[in-house]
Amino acid sequence: MIEAQQATLKEKLKEVFGYNQFRGKQELIMKNILDKKNTFVIMPTGAGKSLCYQLPAISQEGTAIVVSPLIALMKNQVDTLNALGVNARFLNSTLSKTEVNRVKKEVLNGDLKLLYVAPESLTKEENVAFLQKAHISFAAIDEAHCISEWGHDFRPEYRKIKAILQQIADIPVIALTATATPKVQLDIQKNLNMEKANVFKSSFNRDNLFYEVRPKNQAKKQLIRFLNDRKGKSGIIYCLSRKKVEEIAEFLNVNGFNAAPYHAGLDGNMRMKNQDDFLNEDVDVIVATIAFGMGIDKPDVRFVVHYDTPKSVEGYYQETGRAGRDGLVGDCLMFYSYNDILKLEKFNKDKPVTEKENAKLLLEEMSSYAESSVCRRKQLLHYFGETYHEPCGKCDNCTHPKEKFQAKEEMIIALKTVKLTGERFGINHLVNVIRGSKDQYVTSYSHDQLEVHGVGSEKEPEFWKSVIRQTMLNGYLDKDIENIGVLKMNEAGEEFLKDPKDIEFTINHIYTDVGDEDQ
Ligand code: ADP
Ligand code: ZN
């Protein structure tokens, strides 16, 4: 890239946005785009992803296409850019014919720097034809995890984007997401045909957030106590159903808290009013379904409560991420009940098989997270492919640690079992082998002949599952990203087998539900 462009970036950063410095890898990312290379950005919410494509769009000739999944998000960004004096527009189903024509004219004149489009609009033939005539600088795909069925927010239209872009022009692509587990990341890269793209990933650690999981016993009472300690502070309480949202909002108001409901069943005006009241601090607590939050930028949310157990760890992490965006403390409390998991499973029963299995796996990961006694931060970061060395000191499992044991021998057994069974199996089969099961899978693969078969028969299945999970969390086993559920050896694991060291694991604590969980 020419030096002049680099200087321009820095100048424009100050001139247009009023910022003195780039954050994290922003500048590297922008240079990559200006160098016309494909770019993949994985950064947590609030890290400053939008600027990564906005600034390069402003700094060069032509119009950048920005694919964005939500009309509200698009409008928000376009309004902000217009207020900064940047010529940006959106193209989606809310525009009239006259408005569409005006936007098109601006693109063809070369006046427009950024054109936001919904995937549904991008794939329309007439739009493709018009974009072919325009001078397009590059394409940005925001919320790129929508491409993946393994993400928490799958949008089938997203899968068509690449083919459409190829028809439009030979332009570099920048894909951005805040939620890429290694599996989702691979899926995005494959779908966009950008396996060779430069990947910029920053840590997902949010060190001002405190994570806590409590059994859902007498949850209403617990909630009142939790809120009493945070009177007058802003917070979000997530519930699974609209009915529960209404119920909890009313319950809180009756108990003297200033709360309002938010869900897709409320009429538009009411929803808007409750959201505005929350943003303007006329309401302290918003009780909401997960419909609330995407694109909401309230910096001083002091707590996020999951009253019901969430559907996936990824979704949960996104939602907790709305706390403490100003960098000050944020408390994330989740109530866990296995009953909730079963309820969620029931919701999925009519889905196609693969979707159902995927949803089930996400739920299993959720309950494994909730029931575990390992540092929460370590588990969450592991989910995003990061190894974190506990204790973090800011989670329930760190501040109230559970009992530990010397796990060297157990870990050797776990690793050997993965290796000897050929790195082709998931946790249940591995545990069956270790505990000496003679079920048809174990026998048909002759795994009852292995030296590890039955060596752990005196311990419960949960104990061994926990050993295997902790082996993985500590970075000695990998999840196979091609085959969901399958565990594989890695270098650290092989090394450990050659030269085993002392290592402590926590004794897993399992929550049992007590009758009146919801009272
Ligand atoms: P993301 O899309 O990653 O969730 P945003 O793009 O919405 O994050 O950015 C979050 C906030 O950080 C915005 O208010 C944005 O203006 C601000 N921001 C981004 N980059 C910088 C920077 N270099 N210096 C200061 N503030 C920044
Ligand atoms: Zn911790």
TrEMBL record:
Cofactor: Zn(2+); Mg(2+)
Keywords: ATP-binding, DNA damage, DNA recombination, DNA repair, DNA-binding, Helicase, Hydrolase, Isomerase, Metal-binding, Nucleotide-binding, Zinc
Stretches assigned to the Helicase C-terminal domain: 219-367
Coiled-coil regions, chain positions: none
GO MF: helicase activity
E.C. numbers: 5.6.2.4
Catalyzed reactions: Couples ATP hydrolysis with the unwinding of duplex DNA by translocating in the 3'-5' direction
Domain Helicase ATP-binding: from-to ranges: 30-198
Similarity field: Belongs to the helicase family. RecQ subfamily.
Protein name from the UniProt record: DNA helicase RecQ
Organism, as annotated: Marivirga lumbricoides
Lineage, broadest ranks: Bacteria, Pseudomonadati, Bacteroidota, Cytophagia, Cytophagales
Residues represented out of the complete protein: 1 to 519 of 725
